[in-house]
Amino acid sequence: MRGLSKWAMGLAVLGAAVAGGAAWMIAMPGAAVPAPPVVDVVAESQLAARLRQHVGAIAGERNWLKLEALEASARYIEGQLQAMGYTVTRQSVPSKSRPVSNIEAKLEGEAGAARGLVVIGAHYDSAEDTVGANDNGSGVAVLLELARAYAGQRAAPGFEGVRLVFFVNEEPPYFQTEMMGSLVYAKELAAQKKKVAAMYALETMGAYYDTPGSQRYPLPGLGMIYPGAGNFLGFISNTDGRDDVRTAVGAFRATRRLPSEGIAAPGKLEGIDWSDHWSFWTQGYPGVMVTDTAPFRYEYYHTPQDTPDKIDYQRLAKATLGLREMFARLYLQPGLKPGQGA
């Protein structure tokens, strides 16, 4: 009996440790579901229309095998940013065919400020044989609308600036290789000895479903903790990024725009490192993925059916407005408001 008692006690301790570890990874400030929700029908509808326009302009296979289409997407992004008043720069990125480009726009801040840079990025290439509307035309569209809202603004005191970057070569065969656009970018920051306070990868953001069972998870146990319906925006990082995830989730939930969930889990957990934030981790920088968790929710992920008509533009607009307010609260000068209305 004494032996059984020790086993029981050991199992109880182990169970408590596992439960405690899980709680540490998933505990987030604020309410996951906004109550009451913020509704601005006119602003959201106007924004949804622009998001639809961007996704439609970007959609179509665009990668190292479709260089003309990739360059056309790059020119569209450049043209939009220039029309907003930004000076746009390109960074050359190698590929198996010919060099391609990261595209960058900047919000200035304090030169050499102690907290360093904030990077908000989205990749604009698509996987082979896909249209790439959600992956990642949706992320590109959101970043373009953030750029529109922030045009002419400056980073908050203590930050060197905010960089809005459209990365190339995120998809295979470049994913997590030396030719991944975000890794080229992050390595250049490291070579310049730049400090990065926060990095956000906007990745597959347009799929939302209220149907029970529409959301899956890489581990069965997570389904007992997180929602069964795929109607939320996810904030995801490794365990080193727990504070960054909590900060972002708390600020996003305060906007009351869209349900949200966050997790800071071991980087080896399936899906945790599946975007450009991984590149920043390799250089010792923080990185958070902001996503609809498409591989676990969106049946058209990495298929030719990932077309613009599959995206929920109304909820993508809510996500954009929430992120617009979140980033402004965290990283823009106090007293400055993001673009009025839509």
How would you name the oligomeric state of the polypeptide chains in this document? single chain
Average of per-residue pLDDT values:
91
Structural class: alpha/beta
Distance between the termini: 69 Å
Q: How many helical stretches? A: 8
Show the helix and strand layout:
Blueprint: H1 2-26, H2 41-58, H3 67-83, E1 89-93, E2 100-108, E3 117-123, H4 133-150, E4 161-167, H5 181-191, E5 196-203, E6 233-237, H6 242-255, E7 260-264, H7 277-282, E8 288-291, H8 313-331
Helix pairs in contact: 2-4, 2-8, 4-8, 6-8
Characterization of this structure:
Helix 4 (133-150) links the parallel strand 3 and strand 4 (161-167). The protein is of the alpha/beta class and 342 residues long. Helix 2 crosses helix 4, helix 4 packs across helix 8 (313-331) and helix 6 (242-255) packs across helix 8 (313-331). Helices cover 37% and strands 15% of the residues. Residues 1-19 have low confidence and may be disordered. It has two domains: 1-29; 31-331, Aminopeptidase (3-Layer(aba) Sandwich), CATH 3.40.630.10. It contains eight helices and eight strands. The N and C termini lie far apart (69 Å). The longest helix has 25 residues, at 2-26.
List descriptors:
342 residues
Concise summary:
The protein has 342 residues and is an alpha/beta fold.
